Amino acid sequence: MLKKVLVLGGSFGGLTAALEVKRRLGGRVEVTVISKEDRFVFLPSLPWLVTGHRQAAALTLPISAILASRRINFIHGTACGIDPVRMCVTTETASHDYDYLVIATGPHLACEEIPGLGPQQGHTHCIFTLEHAQKSREAWLKLLAAPGPLVLGSTQMASCFGPYYELTFELDHELRRRGIRHKVPITYLTSESYLGHMGIDGLGPSRRFIEDEFAKRDIKAMVSQAVAAVDPENIHLQDGRKLPFKLALLAPPFKGVAGVAALGNPRGFIPVDSHYRHLQYANIYAVGVAVAMAPREPTPVPTGVPKTGYMTVRMAKTAAFNIAADCNNTAPLALEDINILCLLDMGGTGALMYAEPILPPRQRSLLKKGHWVPWAKAGLERYFLWKMRHGLSQLP
């Protein structure tokens, strides 16, 4: 009997899971992807869009074309709710039943939790979507025309720090190249308890590394900070201080998206076992940012654990393997520990960061600086877009 596999989300996790399930099970499954976005975006390169080193067209692919080449259905819509008993997902216009469900919906960017935060209703910018990055690009060009204080970083409950470290280094590099760095004081504001924490209790010498690199570039850091509110000219911190800005690029708090949050924890993230199955419903899987992942220990100001594209792809392949295993009545695969790999562009140079597993104590970790890192990141971008363009979950 033909099994129905429904995937929510059209980014790294959703597309990888859909393509991998289809590769493993072929005509024995009907795979459908529901995504509120109709384009796949290579999110790690969005900082380059802000600086002008990439254009949007170079980072996007139409999801329908990716999936059609593998006979996978695509529905451009938003999942509004899940009924795990009836095994169906509702969208704005229809109901879709499933035998297996993969939740890869990413985060809800909860700007509403901090008054004045965000590009829609507030006074700050971020880079977690293509549209947000394009608005950040426009704001950056305005800052170049009329220099003033620049603030970057992450608010409380954010769980993605790497892109804002990248932007800090890249924008510093651009300002120096243009000869106006002295006109733009840069402050890195973060909920992390120390520089280089990144939501994973640091990575080898990451604390000393980031502190030294910021000192070389005269970048001021403010750690363990929570944002109370933002007005057009100031960030109001919970300790009562005000931080003036001309441009602020801040990661907002993360929550699970509304359509799936009922299956999750109080923040809406989905609890899973080592097979990436929901703890209560064995035919529901979750991957990527949608997954609930607790930090090793709480920080003074709450931070989340990041889920990079590298991690998300590994989760998605594990979930796909286990759906196929269930269909084939074979043993599932447990991914007990997950690793993290990050290529951090620093403007003219960069750093490779690797940890195994993501949270300490670790078997091994690596942090290596080199001018080759931006080239490696550009190569990864080209490879992954090529792979997606051809509807591949792995090399043929």
Describe the structure in brief.
The chain has helices at residues 12-25, 46-51, 63-68, 130-145, 162-178, 206-217, 309-328, 373-389; strands spanning 3-8, 29-35, 39-41, 60-62, 73-76, 81-83, 88-90, 95-97, 100-103, 107-109, 150-154, 186-190, 220-222, 227-230, 234-237, 242-244, 247-251, 254-256, 284-286, 340-345, 350-356, 364-369. With 396 residues, the protein is α/β, with parallel strands linked by helices.
Would you write up a description of this structure?
The chain is an alpha/beta fold. It has two domains: about 5-110 and about 255-335, 3-Layer(bba) Sandwich (FAD/NAD(P)-binding domain); about 110-255, FAD/NAD(P)-binding domain, CATH 3.50.50. The chain is about 25% helix and about 25% strand. It has eight helices and 22 strands. The chain has helices at about 10-25, 45-50, 65-70, 130-145, 160-180, 205-215, 310-330, 375-390; strands at about 5-10, 30-35, 40, 60, 75, 80-85, 90, 95, 100-105, 105-110, 150-155, 185-190, 220, 225-230, 235, 240-245, 245-250, 255, 285, 340-345, 350-355, 365-370. The strands form seven sheets. It has a five-stranded parallel beta sheet. Helix 1 (about 10-25) runs parallel beside helix 7 (about 310-330). The longest helix is centred in the C-terminal third of the chain and has 20 residues, at about 310-330. The two termini are about 30 Å apart. The mean pLDDT is about 95.
